[in-house]
Amino acid sequence: MELKLVSTTLTVFLLIISVTVTTADYVRPQPRETLQFPWKSKPHSYPQQVHISLAGEKHMRVSWITDDNSSPSVVEYGTFPGRYSSMAEGESTSYNYLFYTSGKIHHTVIGPLEHDTVYFYKCGQQGPEFQLKTPPAQFPVTFAVAGDLGQTGWTKSTLEHIDLCKYDVHLLPGDLSYADYMQHRWDTFGELVQPLASARPWMVTQGNHEKEYIPLLQGGFASYNARWKMPSEESGSTSNLYYSFEVAGVHIIMLGSYADYDKHSDQYNWLKADLLKVDRKKTPWLLVLLHVPWYNSNEAHQNEGDGMMQAMEPLLYAASVDLVFSGHVHAYERSNRVNNRRPDSCGPVHITIGDGGNKEGLARKYKNPKPDWSVFREASFGHGELKIVNATHAFWSWHRNDDDEPVRSDQVWITSLVNSGCLAEKSHEFRKILMAP
Ligand SMILES: [Fe+2]
């Protein structure tokens, strides 16, 4: 009897421990080393660093690099392996950065493509065959979300976990390669992400690590803009630093934390025009991504987003944005619906997810007491999954890299604002703010 009591007590004690270690107090170990990429000999015309991105209704942009400057920017594709019923020709570019000269960077738009369909494709009529799956036309649709990736042992772990999830589109709120002026590191990053990024569209926006600006010598975003061309033209933007796209029933706006954002800026005016185009009957969900968080209770990067928030938060609020994802802070934090620094049932949920696994390590210190808008915060590497089930309901989960296992550590059902009454309530404000000259 006594033995049974001891055993029960021990079980309860172990249960308490196991519950405790999965709470928000859990703190990850040290950063991992930057990965080494042994040099591999490939024919100069072979495609490298293949990645795809959405490029307007039913179209996809295929991007890759060749060492051979005469290699054609041609993609052959079809729905059966080795049998290509269609072909498209695109454009190419290259850039110089100090003593570095990039390979030939190809961007070729293919389509129209069927929804939710596997395509097999070949780049530049050389090298291996790749395959991609197009997103569905309607719900459900799933997004993988991870920012501040870098290329370390933790990045590898995060990418392996994302690969296990059945997702349609990857959303990356800035800070991709952490090349930090070492241009060949953009090439190794491209190779590292190719297995995932050649199979599902990767939609990215820029972070501070994409800038690589050197006064008098190098303009900003040279590598990022040349390599990661996003559908800016397709969405009426004049800059690769901000754009929008639609997938299934979701309108997604990628903002640029490092482009001008004041009321007279091109980005601000483009954002107003883009919000006015959103039809919530067609796209009931409205998402925004940007790099520097507006709601952040971590001590890292405190108040850095304040200027942009002051300029643009009223627009996002008036338009009833559902969710805002950001990166920059190397940790995870989820807010309640919030606006103007106060909980507000008609404001967006803000999620900071700059925890992809870069070489700088985690941002471990939080401000206390926790602000009333903050629901969950934790300094761990990981990734998020947003499964939008229908016009009104989405399931968000955050998966911590628990050593090398993905562990679901935060999860919540989110209801969209589309049927909440917020849209009707704010319709006057929406017109006033968005239609102002
Ligand atoms: Fe950053």
UniProtKB/TrEMBL annotation:
It catalyses: a phosphate monoester + H2O = an alcohol + phosphate. InterPro entries: Calcineurin-like_PHP (IPR004843), Metallo-depent_PP-like (IPR029052), MPP_PAP (IPR041792), PAPs-like (IPR039331), PAPs_C (IPR025733), PAPs_N (IPR015914), Purple_acid_Pase-like_N (IPR008963). Residues 1-24 form the signal peptide. Residues 347-404 form the Purple acid phosphatase C-terminal domain. Its EC number is 3.1.3.2. Residues 47-134 form the Purple acid phosphatase N-terminal domain. GO terms for molecular function: acid phosphatase activity; metal ion binding. Keywords: Glycoprotein, Hydrolase, Iron, Signal, Zinc. Its cofactor is Zn(2+); Fe cation. It is an enzyme of class 3 (hydrolase). Residues 142-332 form the Calcineurin-like phosphoesterase domain. Belongs to the metallophosphoesterase superfamily. Purple acid phosphatase family. This is Purple acid phosphatase. The lineage of its organism: Eukaryota, Viridiplantae, Streptophyta, Embryophyta, Tracheophyta.
